[in-house]
Amino acid sequence: MQLNTLDMAVFLGFMLAVVGFSMYKSRRERTSEDYFLAGRGLTWPLIGFSIVAANLSTEQFVGMAGQAAGNVGLAVSNWQLTGAVGIVVVAFTFLPRFLRGGIYTMPEYLEYRYNASARAIMAVYTVVVYVLVTVTTVLYSGGLTLQTIFGMDLRAAIWLIGVIAAVYTTWGGLKAVVWADLFQGATLLLGGLVTMVLGFHAVGGVDSFFTHNADRLHMILPSDHPILPWTGLVAGIWIPIFYYCGLNQFIVQRTLAARDLAQGQRGVIFAAALWLLVPFFIVFPGIMALQLYPGQMERPDQAYPLLIRNLIPAGLRGFMFAAIAGAVISSLASMLNSAATIFTMDIYKRHLRAGASQPALVMTGRVATVIFVVVACLVAPFLGHPRFGGVFNFIQEFQGYISPGILAAFVFGFLVPRAPGMAGVAALLSSAPIYGLLQWQWSRVPYLNRMALTFLLLIAIMGVITLAAPLRQPKKLPLTRELGPTFTLGSVIPGAAVIAGVAAFYVVFW
Fold first, then answer.
1. What is the pTM of this model?
2. How many angstroms separate the Cα of 115 from the Cα of each of 302, 421, 424?
3. pLDDT for 161-185, tens place per residue?
4. 464: Cβ–Cβ under 8 A, 6 or more apart, which residues?
5. From CA 279, how far away is CA 304, in angstroms rounded?
6. Please, which pLDDT band fits residue 389 given cuts at 50, 70 and 90?
7. Distance from C-alpha of 169 to C-alpha of 146, rounded to nearest angstrom
C-alpha cells in the first residue's frame, strides 16, 4: 500500500496534535505523584479510554486476528469477553483495597501485606517481563504491521514507534499517556469499525460471512484443542485474566490515579463495555482475511494487515496509518510508564536511594523510560523467529511464568489474614520453576491448563506454610484515603449490564 502526500499529511498532523496536546496537558508534572499517578485526579472517561488504548494494540490486531485466522477462530474472543467480566469483578474487589492504601504500584502492596522481599521480587519480575516480553512484543507486532501494510523496513518501523512513545511519556508521565490515549483510543475504535464494515462488504455481506465461516464461529472448542480448549476456559483462563486486569501495573495504574473510588470503578466498567466490541472489530476481520486472501497469507499474524492493505481506499490510508500507529504507541507508552514507575518507586527509592528528592524521582523515571525503550527496540526484531509461535501465543506463554505466582500471593493474602511473609515469597519464587517444569514435561498440554495446575500447587504450598507458621496477628494495611462505599448504584448497574452482554454473546455463538 502506497501512502500519498495527503495520507502522510493526515498521519503527521494527527501524531503532532496528539503528542503536542498530551505534552501541553502534562506540562506541570513536578512531583512523583504528578508524574507517575497524574496527581490522583483522573476521571472515568479518561480512565476507560486509557485502559482500552493500553490494552488494544497490535498484539491484538496482529496476534488475536492471527489466531482467528488460524485454528482458533472466534473462540479467541474469550480473552476479551472473560476480561470484561474479570475487570468488573476487579472493580469491586481488588480496586477498593488498592485505592484506600494510597499505593503507587502493585509490588508496594505486597510489602504492606507480606514483607520487603515480596515487593522486591515482584518488582524485578515485572520490570524484566515488561521490557523483554510485553514492550518488545508490542514493538515487533507494530513494526510488522507497518511493514506488511505500508512496506516500511521492520527495524525502522520499530524505532519510529519507540521514539514517538518515548517522547511524550518521558516528558509528562501518566497524565501525558492518558490524554494521548483519549485521542488514540477513539481513533483505534473508529478504525476497527471502518475495517469491519469494508470487510463485510468484500465478503458479500453479513449473511455470506456467517454462512461461509460457520465452522469457525464457535466460542467453545473441544477439550483436545491445542491452544484454547474448553477445559482451559473453565479454570486456566481466569488466572491471566485476573492478573492482567487487577494486578498488571500498566492496566491498574490509571485506576490508582482515579480521583475517587466511584470514578475508578466507572472508568473500569466503561473499558469493559468497550471490550465487548473486540470480537467485531478485530476477530471477525481476522476470519474475513482468511476467507478473502488465503493464498497471500504466509503466516496467520498477517491476517489483519493484509485486510487493511487490500481494502482501505486512497484517502483513508493516512487515517488507518494513524489508527494503527496510535494503537501501538498508546500501549507502548503505558507499558514504559509503568515499568519506569515500578523501577523508580520499588527498586530505586526503596533499595538504592531511600532519601531521593521528588525531582530526583521524576528524573529517574524519565531516564528509565529512555533506557527501557532502547533495550526493547534492540530486542524486538528477533521475535519474528518461528519458534515463538506468533506474538499472541508468545506473550501469553511467557506471562505463565509469573502470573500464577503473583495472583496466588495476592488472592491468598486477601483471603487468609494470617498468611506469613514467607508464604508470599514462596509463591513468587516457586511460580517460574513449577511452570517451567510443567512446560518441559507437558509441552503438548495447553498453557492455560498448565497455568491452572501451577496456581493450585502454589496455593497448596502457601497453605502448608501458613499452617506451619501463621502470623500471630493479621497485618493492618494502611488506610490513607477515605473513598466512600464500595458498591454504588452508578457502578453496579453498568457492571451488571456488561456481564449480561458477555452472557448474550456466548448464547449466540455457543
1. 0.85
2. 46, 6, 8
3. 888 878 767 776 767 777 777 777 7
4. none
5. 13
6. low
7. 22
pLDDT mean over 39-66? 78
Query: Hunting for cell 474487589 — which residue is that?
Result: 93
Provide CB contacts within 8 A for 281, sequence distance 6+: 189, 192, 193, 195, 196
Residue 258: beta bridge partners?
42
pLDDT at 131 (0 to 100) = 86
**Torsion angle, alpha carbons of 422, 427, 430, 436, to 10:** -170
- Give the Cα separation of 505 and 510 in Å (integer): 8
Report DSSP state, residue 479.
-
And the C-alpha cell for 354? 531511600
Quick one: how far is CA 390 from the chain centroid? Answer: 17
Q: Are 346 and 107 in contact (CB under 8 A)?
A: yes
Unique residue bearing C-alpha cell 486477601: 414
Q: How far apart are CA 181 and CA 19, in angstroms?
A: 10
Residue 372, C-alpha cell as written in the block: 527501557
42: which strand partners?
258
Residue type for position 175: K
Average pLDDT over residues 102-123: 90
Task: Average the pLDDT over 85-92 and give the result.
Answer: 91
- The runs of H, that is alpha helices, within 380-415 are 391-399, 403-415
CA distances from 139 to 57, 149, 164, 373, 412 (A): 10, 15, 12, 9, 35
Cell numbers placing 158: 520499530
Cα–Cα separations (whole angstroms), residue 373 to 17, 55, 156: 22, 18, 14
DSSP code per residue over 268-282:
HHHHHHHHTTHIIII
Asked if residue 124 lies in contact with residue 347, where contact means CB atoms within 8 angstroms, the answer is yes
Query: Do the Cβ atoms of 138 and 57 come closer than 8 Å?
Result: yes
How far apart are the two ends of the chain, measured CA to CA in Å? Answer: 38
- 333 pLDDT higher than 80: no
List phi, psi (to 5°) of 329. Answer: -65, -40
- Please, which residues have CB within 8 angstroms of residue 472's CB and are 6 or more apart in sequence? none
Indicate the DSSP class of residue 300: G
* Residue 486 confidence (pLDDT) above 90: no
Determine the Cα–Cα distance for residues 437 and 211; give it in Å rounded to an integer.
43
In the chain, the domains with their CATH numbers are 5-98+119-399+476-508 (1.20.1730.10)
With beta carbons less than 8 A apart as the criterion, state whether 59 and 137 touch: yes
Burial class of residue 100, CB neighbours in 10 A (0-12, 13-18, 19+):
middle
Return all residues near 252 (Cβ < 8 A) that are at least 6 apart: 98, 106, 246
Which amino acid, residue 206? V
Kindly report the number of other CB atoms within 10 A of residue 115's CB atom: 16
d(CA 480, CA 475): 15
C-alpha cell at 64: 488475536
Contact 111, 474 (CB under 8 A): no
What pLDDT does 139 receive?
86
Distance of CA 229 to the CA centre of its chain: 22
